[in-house]
């Protein structure tokens, strides 16, 4: 697999005595690939010549994937790379990543990101009242429907942190993450991408509500029974399941996945699992 | 939120009597946005003029996000869009999606995909032997380390289907999905993206092993105790947790998340939850 996630510092740019660069500056990745980041404007024909020379050399060196990171202001060079056989791997706001596969064998390039991660927050207080909102946009807008706070987890954010942040942003309520009670995978939910939606239970640490102006019409603590009786909740299979799970959890009859930081090699991460079953009970 | 995930059929291309198009063909999305897909080559200056006229008109119409889907062979037009203020939202192999936000308020455009989904498969037979492989590439290559089969879930594939497919591809063994036992979230694992890694338990339906030539050095059924005694397993926090969870599950002391199809509105999806706790026991 060839990827830009890490790289050696072996700069392969070759400069001749007269100062003209004869190859693109390449950085090796640990999968036998080369990454080149174009940082200065260039004449397309000069770029084309450099690219051809570089590809020939990298082929001789037995390189596999060749990555070109093109910043937005140099997008005019993309056409040249496409003409040389490059295709698109992914893009972020300010750059396009192009890629080419040199070996004759099938490419083993890593997949592009395929999922977005979203959450719904189940926050219940000691009076069996649940924290609910009415949204200003989307499918339920203007219908008087009370829902759990929901949101999309930011890039680089843990699910448990994202759920705490979303509840705070939408309602002003401080919470502590308890468990992931369930999750759901759906496909083709935005563009052609998939969604992983995590139902999180959170414990309230404050109770005063201050609804977010931009997205939230209203927010309140609502008796759980009143929430579950809404026809909108009764009529949707997913919401019925979520309600059953949350009811069981409130009654102490359900165990979800708790979260702990767990490292592997040099990478930090968070493991979510059924800790009640695994660890000695408190 | 403005997205291309669904759209009305309201074509807004305006053609004059002489046949010349004075605006780009736009399709409204359900969030107040406009999507235009460029399908024919165009002179950059003609594209620039069309784009300006279209943006003026869409602004007057109160449109929000403007999306331009540019196929790879027309990437030469990207520079023009960037000069008009567009930035990149995402790219797939054959197209670049550019985006622009017309209103004065902060943009509420949907996030790009942020996660890749991968799996590890825990497959154990009635003799308490676990299905393990040695990989031809990656960190453990050539070290004689026996690992669970792992892999990346394809775009549009469910986690449970992906785990069954990966086991079949790597080892030739047919399996049935049992549960997600745990999952782990890590950041900046490839490019700047995150990974969600699901530990899946599978029940073997066949036992003969045929190792995949391209990726797998060797595969075998290995006594569970022998697997767990490997220093590689003992020395890594994540693998130790995974081993504890799998041992507890084998002894009937652990409950993970099972999977059932659950629909919401018109969308199908799969819900993963602790069904033993929720549903009447069999």
Question: How would you explain this protein's 3D organization?
Answer:
- The structure is a homodimer of 282-residue chains.
- With 282 residues, chain A is of the alpha+beta class.
- Chain A has two domains: 7-101, Gcn5-related N-acetyltransferase (GNAT) (Aminopeptidase, 3-Layer(aba) Sandwich), CATH 3.40.630; 115-275, Nucleoside Triphosphate Pyrophosphohydrolase (Alpha-Beta Complex), CATH 3.90.79.
- Chain A is 23% helix and 36% strand.
- The first copy, chain A, contains seven helices and 14 strands.
- A six-stranded mixed beta sheet of chain A has the order 1-2-3-4-6-5.
- The longest helix of chain A has 17 residues, at 44-60.
- Chain A is elongated and about 75 Å long.
- Mean pLDDT of chain A is 89; it is low at 1-19.
- At the A-B interface, helix 2, strand 5, strand 6, strand 7 and strand 10 of A face helix 2, strand 5, strand 6, strand 7 and strand 10 of B.
Q: TL;DR of this structure?
A:
The structure is a homodimer of 282-residue chains. By secondary structure, chain A is an alpha+beta fold. Chain A contains 7 helices and 14 strands.
Question: Which percent bin holds the helix content of chain A?
Answer: 10-25%
Largest sheet of chain A: 6 strands, mixed
Number of helices of chain A: 7
Give the CATH superfamily of the largest domain in chain A.
Nucleoside Triphosphate Pyrophosphohydrolase
Strand-pairing-aware structural class of chain A:
alpha+beta
CATH architecture classification of the largest domain in chain A? Alpha-Beta Complex
Largest interface, Cβ cutoff 8 Å: A-B, 86 and 86 residues
Kindly report the oligomeric state of this protein: homodimer
Strand runs of chain A, count: 14
CATH topology of the largest domain in chain A: Nucleoside Triphosphate Pyrophosphohydrolase
Question: Kindly, what is the distance between the CA atoms of the first and last residues of chain A, rounded to a whole number of angstroms?
Answer: 44 Å
Radius of gyration of chain A, taken over Cα atoms and rounded to an integer in Å? 26 Å
Lateral arrangement of strands in the main beta sheet of chain A: 1-2-3-4-6-5
Q: What is the 3D form of chain A?
A: elongated
Average pLDDT of chain A works out at: 89
Order of helices and strands of chain A: EEEHEHEEEEEHEEEHHHEEH
As a percent range, the share of strand residues of chain A is: 35-45%
Catalytic activity (chains A, B): NAD(+) + H2O = beta-nicotinamide D-ribonucleotide + AMP + 2 H(+); NADH + H2O = reduced beta-nicotinamide D-ribonucleotide + AMP + 2 H(+); ADP-D-ribose + H2O = D-ribose 5-phosphate + AMP + 2 H(+)
Family (chains A, B): Belongs to the Nudix hydrolase family.
Cofactor (chains A, B): Mg(2+)
Enzyme class (chains A, B): hydrolase
């Amino acid at each position: 697999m060839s990827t830009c996630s890490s790289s050696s510092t072996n700069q392969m740019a070759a400069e001749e005595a007269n100062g003209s660069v004869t190859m693109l500056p390449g950085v090796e990745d640990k999968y036998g690939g080369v990454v080149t980041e174009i940082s200065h404007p260039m004449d397309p024909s000069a770029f084309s010549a450099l690219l051809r020379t570089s590809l020939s050399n990298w082929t001789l060196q037995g390189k596999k994937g060749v990555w070109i990171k093109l910043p937005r202001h140099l997008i005019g060079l993309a056409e040249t790379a496409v003409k040389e056989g490059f295709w698109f791997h992914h893009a972020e706001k300010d750059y396009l990543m192009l890629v080419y596969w040199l070996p004759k064998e099938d490419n083993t390039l890593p997949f592009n990101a395929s999922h977005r991660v979203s959450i719904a927050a189940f926050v219940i207080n000691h009076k069996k009242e649940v924290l609910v909102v009415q949204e200003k946009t989307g499918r339920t807008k203007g219908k008087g429907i009370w829902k759990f706070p929901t949101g999309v987890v930011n890039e680089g954010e843990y699910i448990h942190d994202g759920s705490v942040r979303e509840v705070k942003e939408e309602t002003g309520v401080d919470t502590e993450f308890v468990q992931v009670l369930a999750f759901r995978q759906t496909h083709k939910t935005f563009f052609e991408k998939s969604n992983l939606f995590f139902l999180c239970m959170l414990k309230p640490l404050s109770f005063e509500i201050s609804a977010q102006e931009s997205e939230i019409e209203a927010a309140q603590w609502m008796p759980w029974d009143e929430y579950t009786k809404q026809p909108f909740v009764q009529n949707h299979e997913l919401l019925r399941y979520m309600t059953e799970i949350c009811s069981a959890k409130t009654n102490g009859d359900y165990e979800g996945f708790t979260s702990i930081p767990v490292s592997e090699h040099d990478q930090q991460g968070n493991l979510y699992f059924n800790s009640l079953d695994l660890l000695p009970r408190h």
